[in-house]
Amino acid sequence: MNMYTRCPHCDTHFRVTRQQLQASSGQVRCGRCQRVFDAFTSLSSQLPSAPPPSLSETPAAVTEPARDAELEVPLSRLNIPGLDLPQHENVAAGAPAEERRVEPEVLTLPDDLFGIPAVGASRGRRWPWAMASLVLLVGLAGQGLFFFASDLAAAVPELRPPLTGVCGYIGCTVPLPRFPDQLFIEASDLQVLNAARPSEVLLTATIRNRAAVAQQLPLLELTLTDALNQASARKVFYAADYLDKSQDADRGIAPSQEIPVRMYLDTGDLRPAGYRLYLFFG
User: How far apart are CA 4 and CA 42, in angstroms?
Assistant: First the structure.
């Protein structure tokens, strides 16, 4: 079903359909002045008609000689028997008794001119979506930082200080990276210091970081073996257990740095014939 609307900027009428307006929420670009307007404002199901011509456009009445006032008596006031006068409306002299209806020009718009939002409406409708998108982006960045801050800091070590500062606000941490294949025990030894007290032993070792970045300090696993090389005891030591008291375990081990390990242990009733020492990350 055809409907009619009018551009408020240039007063041009257009033929539209409800399907077109519903699909575009009423936003239409005028095919004549190219300005956007809301077609629902002037929507009508009736074909618009052109306004009747003004008096200035009506042909001028023919001037007749003036008559005496006594002769200016309308025929309708005369009571003449047998004379039937047609009933006419009181119109101006010289004006036509009946004017012909003039149809205005009505244009049909192509479909590609529908769905163009007005500038004010566009701004009013876009800002909630922009705010929602911004909130989602911030949330996504926070999640990425929470779960991948350590990997990012490992890939770009210069970002570790600012990442650590940001994580202080959102509750995440930036742990040092772990590259176990780049950590090595360069040397180790387990010896009895006093033959009179064979249960008291000294474990020494050197841990070296061959990675290009700082790493977390690993855990050390010490296994005591008997004469048949069977495990008789096993214990895991954290960094705070084997580091010197002057060292901070949270700083890890720097690139190419060597960390000395020195621990006094009491084996009790065990008389170990050997040992095995491993490093790993828990």
Answer: 8
